[in-house]
Design a protein that fits this description.
Layout lengths: L5 H13 L1 H13 L4 E6 L2 H16 L4 E5 H7 L8 E4 L3
Parallel strand pairs: 1-2, 1-3
Length: 91
């Protein structure tokens, strides 16, 4: 690939993997406290990048998981989004 920096890519992926235990513990605690579903909100590239995580959760768990466009949620809402929802919004 043109201008692909392999070292930078590996460093970014290693950083994400280093968060695994912390994320697992945090999400487990939130589910134990009553979280009923999880929403991944984004648009464009952010939405595309979240698709693998959403598909993994949808295929391997029965926990309700949604991938939504953030602007559409603001405009039309989603009846499943509420005070017990976990919401992931990448920056």
């Amino acid at each position: 690939m043109l201008n692909f920096d392999e070292d930078r890519f590996v460093k970014i992926q290693d950083g994400a993997l280093a968060l695994t235990d912390r994320l697992r513990d945090t999400i487990s605690a939130l589910v134990d406290d009553g979280a009923t579903n999880i929403f991944f909100l984004g648009a464009g590239g952010a939405g595309v990048l979240m698709q693998p995580a959403v598909q993994l959760l949808q295929r391997s768990t029965s926990f309700p998981t949604y991938l939504e466009n953030a602007a559409e949620i603001v405009a039309v809402g989603n009846s499943n989004l509420g005070p017990t929802s976990l919401v992931i919004i990448p920056s």
